[in-house]
Predict the structure.
Amino acid sequence: MTNIKGLTLPELEHWVSEIGEKPFRAKQIYHWMYKKNARSFEEMSDLSKDLRIKLSKLATLSLLGISRRILSKIDQSVKYLFRLPDEQAVEAVYMVEGKRTTVCLSTMVGCPIACPCCATGIMGFKRHLTTGEIIDQLLFIQRDRQSVVTNIVFMGMGEPFLNYDNVIKAASILNSEIGPEIAARRIIISTAGIVPEIYRYADEGHRFKLAISLNATTDTQRDELVPINKKYPLQDLLSAVRYYTKRSRRRVTFEYILINDFNDSEQDARRLIKMLGQIPCKVNVIPFNQNEFLPYKSPSEDKLEQFLKHLYCAPFAITVRRSKGQDISAACGQLYVRAHQG
């Protein structure tokens, strides 16, 4: 059977024609899959019964099974453990803040970058997710929560720019007018710094927001926290970011995970200002989220306040991002599929 979840409208039109149906049927199926969130062809009530039976014999819509959902007791976050068709597993997170509902999507099973400040890296790398598997996380959660998701962040398990084609395709479908129709400005794709793909992203002119996991102000620090820095050091990364901001005329978001006694000094703050001062950007300071796998510690509130004071003269916007779902290991850097869960 063909997995049609993840097909674009032109791809779906081609498939519909191949099975002997008129191309306009593709738009109906696309709308039901992505906008109305149908999990079976039987739900597609404006298709004839014979066509629905035919489609159900040739194709499948649902790619994910739910293994577990965990609700936070401190906020409205929900962490989902999804089972994939090959029995691998991934996690995704639903978050609420005011009128904004956000889903954090995974793009890989595990991650090859192996950042020592991120639990996902300990899993190793299993495989990329397909476009359909990425999209189905959002569609499943939206249906399960009976809520319209307003924002998407590609910040879950995996490095999005190492699964570039599937991630961009998924973001485009999520943005489409006859699909979920999530505004491009509300879709954020994060990368640890895959320099060639940053140039590619700039040249292709995508309207989704770009975030960079910076996390350090020297190559020595970043080599430890973000090992891909040994291949694409800060100078190369920042050159690519400058190219992106100039080409796209958009600012970039830098994520800076603040770790106690590692990258939280006055000198770090001064280097950050010097490093980013000429780049159109904003900086999200994220206090490190501790977990049982990693040796680093969260900064105290005093340490955080001192660091922010040292940034008072920065020419870019600074925000402190408090991760949701910390009590259910759903916060930034905490996603990890334990063997007994999958």
In short: The first helix runs from residue 9 to 18. The chain has a mean pLDDT of 92. Residues 39 and 298 are 41 Å apart (CA to CA).
